Amino acid sequence: MVSKTDDSPAAEETRRDAVKQQDACGCGHMAETSVMNGDGTHDRSEEAESKQNGDNDQGEDPNEQEVIVIQDTGFTVKIQAPGTEPFDLQVSPQEMVQEIHQVLMDREDTCHRTCFSLQLDGNVLDNFAELKSIEGLQEASLLKVVEEPYTVREARIHVRHIRDLLKSLDPSDAYNGVDCNSLSFLSVFTDGDLGESGKRKKKGSELEQIDCTPPEHILPGSKERPLVPLQPQNKDWKPLQCLKVLTMSGWNPPPGNRKMHGDLMYLYVVTGEERHISITASTRGFYLNQSTTYTFNPKPANPSFLSHSLVELLGQISPTFKKNFTTLQKKRVQRHPFERIATPFQVYSWTAPQVDHAMDCVRAEDAYTSRLGYEEHIPGQTRDWNEELQTTRELPRKNLPERLLRERAIFKVHSDFAAAATRGSMAVIDGNVMAINPGEETRMQMFIWNNIFFSLGFDVRDHYRQLGGDSAAHAAPTNDLNGVRAYGAVDVEGLYTLGTVVVDYRGYRVTAQSIIPGILEREQEQSVIYGSIDFGKTVVSHPKYLELLERTSRPLKVQRHAVLNEKAEPVDLCSSVECKGIIGNDGRHYILDLLRTFPPDLNFLPVEGEELSPESQRLGFPRQHRHRLACLRQELIEAFVEHRYLLFMKMAALQLMQQKANKDSRAGALTENGSADPPAALADDAAPTSATPNGSPPAHAHNGECAQPDSSEGKEAEDCIPGLAQAKELAKTVAAEDGAADAKSREVVLNACKAVGSISDTSFDIRFNPDIFSPGVRFPEDSTGDIQKQKQLLKDAAAFLISCQVPSLVKDGLDHSTLPMDGATLTEALHQRGINVRYLGTVLEFIDKTPAKAQLEHIYRIGIGELITRCAKHIFKTYLQGVELSGLSAAVSHFLNCFLSSYPDAVAHLPCDELVSRRKNRRRRNRVPGGGGGDNTAWASLTPSELWKSISAEAHGYYHYTLQCESVDQAVERYGLQKITLLREISIKTGIQILIKEYNFDSRHKPAFTEEDILNIFPVVKHVNPKASDAFHFFQSGQAKVQQGFLKEGCELINEALNLFNNVYGAMHVEICACLRLLARLNYIMGDYPEALSNQQKAVLMSERVLGIEHPSTIQEYMHLALYCFANGQLSTALKLLYRGRYLMLLVCGEDHPEMALLDSNIGLVLHGVMEYDLSLRFLENALATNSKYHGTRSLKVALSHHLVARVYESKAEFRSALQHEKEGYTIYKNQVGEAHEKTRESSEYLKYLTQQAVALQRTMNEIYKNGSNASIVPLKFTAPSMASVLEQLNIINGIIFIPLSQKDLENLKAEVQRRQQLQESGKSDEPQEDGPLELEDGPAAEEQPHSAPSGLEATEWQTPQPSV
Fold first, then answer.
1. Separation CA 414–CA 501 (nearest Å)
2. Phi and psi at residue 145, to the nearest 5°
3. Do 458 and 446 touch, CB atoms closer than 8 A?
4. Residue 483 in 3-state DSSP?
5. Cα–Cα distance measured from residue 1098 to residue 1102, given in angstroms and rounded to the nearest whole number
6. Are residues 1297 and 1085 in contact, defined by beta-carbon separation less than 8 angstroms?
7. Which of 402, 286, 281, 334 has its CA nearest to residue 108?
């Protein structure tokens, strides 16, 4: 449930967003709710005007106009509920009546009402009506809450709602991973809400009462990594028991004669005072009856008391209930809404405490009834998932309100489908669903549940035999999902894909798909009218499919091509042969089996008679892979095409230059073909291609090698080549084909096209044929030349991956623009550059050979940890398949002991001790798919040495990397890993949930884990994430504005983006999190600290809830929040948050990480500010050491670290040490930025000051030695640092620039920015991401890089560099 913190507009806004999402019911009936974020809390007309006048970057005028049209102003209505004072409620015209219902069900004083109507002047309002359509509803209208008679459905809803209220503070749903609940611990460290209550704290007296000493394990250099602090005790979670039991009575359903008296159902309650009572729910409300456990007596008890609300009735009978329920509701509404709103997709926690299992009627009822077949909120039917998924796609999308509505409906249905598919997959593997082909062997069975089709990831009927059997069958679903994602993103009208979710659970892979109408009644042969069902032996095509797929071919870079069918006739396709087209009974054109949407990866696909490029061969490619379905990622294809485009432009420009030169020198006498060899200077970048037209290959062009590893340099290169602008123009004219271009120009473009492998001769257009190298596919004779070209293109792409993308990843690691902290963020960094995880070994080898390996140690260590846990995951998968349900916890704990415990002879406990079956021989076979017969205790014989041997073998076989360790202790020793980190990684990857306690991994006498420590095993789910495209455009244009220095406009655009995101995703989503973080940073820079604090608090809560409490992004959010707390004068909170961040970071990646230096500098500065000098030094000196290691001793970051340490020594009056550090810093500044630079000058001033202080101190000491006690002592100035100076230093290290926003300054800044832009355009253009034009002086933050973010959103978190201090 959602609720309001108080009646403030902001709380109202959050609450509305949450409510809106909840109600958008699965099929989009309610999706017509307010399209904009209907918080009429303030009039946005000013904003609207500024937008109309403002210059729009991206030609978005029409959209923005639309936004303005639907921003109506809000108004206030009075609400009168029975037994309460009337209260005011702010509403907006496009809200629905339903939303007022939700607010009332969440307010503290009306939360116990669910069955009521709202009446205006005696007329009942329709729940689904928009407020603006109601006659007579205006400012200050009085709405009456009128109790309505119950039905069975309403009574059930009421009981469920009361149960939710009773459990509202209970975290057990989050631990069990149900109903999209997840954990959040921020409030433990901020003592409640930072907002209003934060401001009331006394600022002055705060200094005296701070205890700054962190727990021992957080201090630098500590070796212990405890697990228990991961989930600190939240005092609110000590449950307030209102009732002992509330459950359905065994007397249900009421017999006929009682139905006719209005009885709907019976409840059984045990109160806190141990009173056992039976309650009747009737149409008029709830009352006590006289039934007991064994006798049925439905007559009202004496004294009879009928209440419309169960809460009022229980409050009458039980004083404990009344008292505790009130307290509970007070606490509930005080919690931040973000701690309670459901997340869009389930987040699972890998640790949990031991939670008592309490009786819960709703959970029990869910387990047996509603959840197996149908969903609650659609009356009397299961959901037709396919119809819902496809109908939402068909919604109109002409203007912004329509698109918002459509995207919101798509997102809602997707998240519901993912949840249902996950539940179904678990039911299938747990053996609770009947197969549709029960006679077949278990691994071949297929299932239908809740209108979803489930199949297992095994090679059924040797379908994948040629492609790698079970390994291929395991890889195909994820490839297929990537295909569904790609076609979904292109979003062509009239082309439909299936809802697809891939679930890994208990060692099995399940694919869940929505069902094409009619497909189950027909044989596949009849229904497939496009593509092939036997990998290309028989192929059919269809004009409508070709037309639809043609529209996707450009964005997906798929080439239309012909293949031969069984009669050797050419058939046209615009996809791979496996892609099947089926027209459903609903007349829609579906495509499925998209596993080869992207071209094959030749580095992992040895083909006889084909040679790869020399770079690939040098690194030992092609390598044998488990299966033949290895394909390139979409990101790689895009990077490769972009790289080729640059090349194309360079080639054209070059030829133009030459023509010009030839014209000048020979006055028009040209060589026969208008193109000489490109000069060698550029030939390094020339494409590895067929020769230039005159038959000579371009001078030393390496295959796929690119001289510039990343596109930014490409852009610079682009701008320094003269003649490029003409080349672009020329390319446009030739492509237009209107005969305007002369023969020479055509030739220039033709040559460039040939050189880069474009499929067209008149314009740049690179596409891939996904069927090349597919076994069984044959091509017509006349396309041989084309096929050769395509083969070459694939080899070049494969070479591009290892010779460009891998080095560019490592380069980004060296300059810290990529900062992975754990396996997931490393994988993300690989994927962003189009590198598949199977290249992890290659990446590690590359790092091994890099001269600056020491500065990449953190990435290397994370990579090794990821490699080891992934190998362990592969082994664990097959290991689990042989375990029957009753032995699961024993088997998992045994595996973890073998993997992580130093205990050499881990012995498994077989589960037969607890129960001995009397009739053992009658064991039913075939219970669990794939686990059928055989010895179900084979898992028990695993030993640690055997497991580690398998891990090394797997590393060698799969990643082609040699691990030099034979046990966990050797791995820890050799690669500097942490066992706790390995435990976290393996648990997250396999879905294990373990008991949160301290594990002794290093004991050689007893194993670390027992079966009691394994609490649960969760599914690991992959699904499509539908995007909010309009919101994303606003977000990007906001970022662009900010980079240009227009903070206010940027802020408005990002606020608008936040509104739209809320509209599509509801209140919780990673992209909203990135939005809030950026807003907070903008608020902070513009000097609005309280607002920054409030937005960042939301960002932290959301990150904890959506990504996980110890996700690297959450750690970043904690750091930002600490800075804003400090700026708001909440010092102790800032410290607590930083300590929390440091603890999480130690757990996730250990102390040796460049990001730790930033964290420690923050902690050191805050401690310096509260005069804890010794403690401060420990952190700052650790930061100095870490910075020196990862940035090199000559870096400006290190200079700054020296300066910070010197300041603390000065405060301690240890001037010699202070001087020593400041001299180091001064030397770095002098060498790096020169004598005249303001940084160097500041440093030398400070050195003079320190020297004076040191001399003065020495004089005083000498005076004392000479004259003893009667010395005349000049008092020395010892300065405690001012908060302002500490804050200034904090801003510097966090890379934040302050702009005093007086009008004049703003004008100057804009002028400066424009001047720079003109300079850049005339000179070279920089890549905006790294040095936004805001880069003023080359301060230490010039090295700060944007962090890799959880979503693509923040890839460009604008760099806010630093003016000199």
1. 10
2. -90, 120
3. no
4. helix
5. 6
6. yes
7. 334
Say if residues 385 and 417 touch (Cβ distance below 8 Å).
Answer: yes
CA distance 232 to 1102: 18
DSSP code string of 814-827: HTTS----SHHHHH
In the chain, % helix, strand, coil (3-state, to 5) comes to 50, 10, 40
Q: Tell me how many degrees the CA angle 175-178-181 measures, rounded to the nearest 5.
A: 70
What is residue 713's predicted lDDT score, i.e. its pLDDT?
40
Q: What's the rounded Cα separation, in Å, for the pair 593 and 580?
A: 6
Tokens of 1009: 């884990």
Q: Please tell me the distance from the alpha carbon of residue 140 to that of residue 273, in angstroms, as a whole number.
A: 45
According to DSSP, the β-strands at 446-449 and 500-505 are unpaired
pLDDT at 1295: 85
What six digits make up the tokens of 57?
A: 């970057």
* Strands lying side by side in the sheet with 142-147: 87-91, 75-80, 142-147, 116-120, 123-124
d(CA 995, CA 353): 6
Output the six-digit token pair for 483. Answer: 């295909």
Which amino acid makes up residue 897?
N
The pLDDT of residue 1283 is 87
Distance of CA 924 to the CA centre of its chain: 43
Residue partners of 903: CB distance under 8 A and separation at least 6: 897, 944, 1003, 1004, 1005, 1006, 1007, 1008
Per-position b or e across 37-48, b if 16+ CB within 10 A of its CB? bbbbbeebeebb
Per-10-residue mean pLDDT for the chain, 1365 residues long?
39 44 40 35 37 38 42 80 89 86 89 92 89 87 93 92 87 89 91 56 47 89 94 75 88 93 94 93 95 92 89 93 92 88 94 82 64 44 89 95 94 95 94 90 90 92 87 95 96 95 96 93 79 88 95 94 92 93 94 94 92 91 93 96 94 88 66 38 37 36 41 43 68 62 82 87 91 90 90 95 96 93 97 97 95 94 98 96 90 96 83 48 45 63 94 96 94 96 97 96 93 95 95 94 90 94 94 96 92 96 96 97 94 94 96 96 94 94 96 93 95 92 95 91 93 88 79 62 88 76 59 67 43 34 36 35 32
Question: What pLDDT, on a 0 to 100 scale, did the predictor assign at position 92?
Answer: 84
CA distance 1129 to 206: 9
Burial label, 210 (beta-carbon count in 10 A; 0-12, 13-18, 19+): middle
> Could you tell me the pTM of the whole model?
0.85
Instruction: Name 1092's Cβ contacts closer than 8 Å, sequence gap at least 6.
Output: 1080, 1081, 1083, 1084, 1124, 1127
CA distance 756 to 163: 66
CA-to-CA dists, residue 711 to 350, 644, 833, angstroms: 39, 11, 11
1316-1321 long-range contacts (CB < 8 A, ≥24 apart) are 1317/1044
Mark 657-695 as b/e (b = at least 16 C-beta within 10 Å): bbbeebeeeeeeeeeeebbbbbeeebbebbbbbeebeee
Taken in order 922, 923, 929, 932, is the CA torsion positive or negative?
negative
